[in-house]
Automatic annotation (TrEMBL):
This is Peptide/nickel transport system ATP-binding protein. It comes from the Bacteria. PROSITE patterns: ABC_TRANSPORTER_1 (PS00211), ABC_TRANSPORTER_2 (PS50893). Coiled coil: none annotated. Residues 19-259 form the ABC transporter domain. PANTHER family: D,D-DIPEPTIDE TRANSPORT ATP-BINDING PROTEIN DDPF-RELATED (PTHR43776:SF7), TRANSPORT ATP-BINDING PROTEIN (PTHR43776). Keywords: ATP-binding, Nucleotide-binding, Transport. The keyword Glycoprotein does not apply. Belongs to the ABC transporter superfamily. It comes from Leifsonia shinshuensis. GO terms for molecular function: ATP binding; ATP hydrolysis activity. GO terms for biological process: transmembrane transport. SMART domains: AAA.
Length: 289
């Protein structure tokens, strides 16, 4: 090992993680159970953390808390070492370029009257970037997500679901973020388009130190992209580990049930999985009784 490597290692050890969520609690109502209950995890620079759990387990709420879209009841959220738990609107605006989001349904988030170029360039326009710089960035980011430069002059209705998801990704990337929260970003797409968009997300990560919080209910999708996985059940973390650990040797029955529920392309395989899923659910019901 050279002295240079040692210095780098030391720097890496000192640099704070990209994101740190500590004992996060989020409540929607006073008398209901918290939607997110004492959740902690860390995302390193350039790392993809998969967040998985059944519907209603609190995944979206965690993403929204990180993005400042729901109030935090207790706990802390640190972004690159800075406490953003109670960030003001102005502080949130300052974070907008570094911390971005891609949601499930890009159609509803794209204004039908805005061209793709206007939609993608919006964050730069807000930041005061000149028109010339904007246009060259738009072209570059369209290219990065595999869309022709001419797409900039067209409207959302002219694109397929998969293309619109690429547009949403382009809009997230145009500010050169360090962390993108992807909430069910491929869930609405058919399997082959899912694979394309997942490959795209993976290749974008390779080119820069981009980290993802990758939220999905489908283990097959999470397994593809995530280096580590956090499993959520009723607002709580029930299992956490590297993807190999969680997928290869799940500790929790709940995790095995989630894995058995993953849709797969082969219908026979899918039927087998569905059978497994049914059996696991039946045994879970017996356990609970
Ligand atoms: N705006 C809201 N108002 C009240 N309850 C909500 C709201 N959003 C989510 N919840 C509840 O919080 C829990 C977690 O929801 P959510 O974070 O959307 O889960 P997931 O994304 O894992 O499906 C669920 O019980 C859900 O019903
Ligand atoms: Mg959700």
């Amino acid at each position: 090992m050279s002295a240079h490597t040692t210095t780098e290692d030391r720097t890496a050890a000192i640099a704070p993680p990209l994101l740190e969520v500590r004992n996060l609690v989020v409540r929607y109502g006073k008398n209901t159970a918290p939607a997110v209950d004492d959740v902690s995890f860390t995302i390193g620079q350039g790392e993809t953390l998969g967040l998985i759990g059944e519907s209603g387990s609190g995944k979206t709420t965690i993403g929204r808390a990180i993005l400042g879209l729901v109030p935090v009841a207790s706990g802390r959220i640190l972004f690159q070492g800075r406490d953003i738990t109670q960030a003001s609107a102005a502080q949130r605006r300052a974070l907008r370029g570094e911390l971005r989001a891609v949601f499930q349904d890009p159609y509803s988030s794209l204004d039908p009257r805005q061209t793709i170029g206007q939609a993608i360039g919006e964050p730069l326009r807000v930041a005061g970037t000149s028109r010339g710089d904007r246009l060259s960035r738009i072209t570059a980011v369209l290219d990065a997500v595999g869309l022709p430069a001419a797409s900039a002059a067209r409207y959302p209705r002219e694109f397929s679901g998969g293309q619109r998801q690429r547009i949403a990704i382009a809009r997230a990337l145009i500010t050169d973020p360090v962390l993108v929260v992807c909430d069910e970003a491929v869930s609405a797409l058919d399997l082959s388009t899912q694979a394309q968009v997942l490959n795209l997300l993976a290749s974008l990560r390779e080119r820069s130190e981009l980290g993802y919080l990758f939220i999905a209910h489908d283990m097959a999708v999470v397994e593809f992209l995530a280096q580590r996985i956090v499993v959520l059940n009723r607002g709580r973390v029930v299992e956490e580990g590297t993807t190999a650990e969680v997928v290869g040797n799940p500790k929790e029955h709940y995790t095995r049930v989630l894995m058995a529920a993953s849709p797969v392309p082969d219908p026979d395989e899918q039927a087998r999985r569905r059978e497994t899923w049914r059996a696991l659910r039946a045994s879970a019901a017996t356990d609970a009784a």
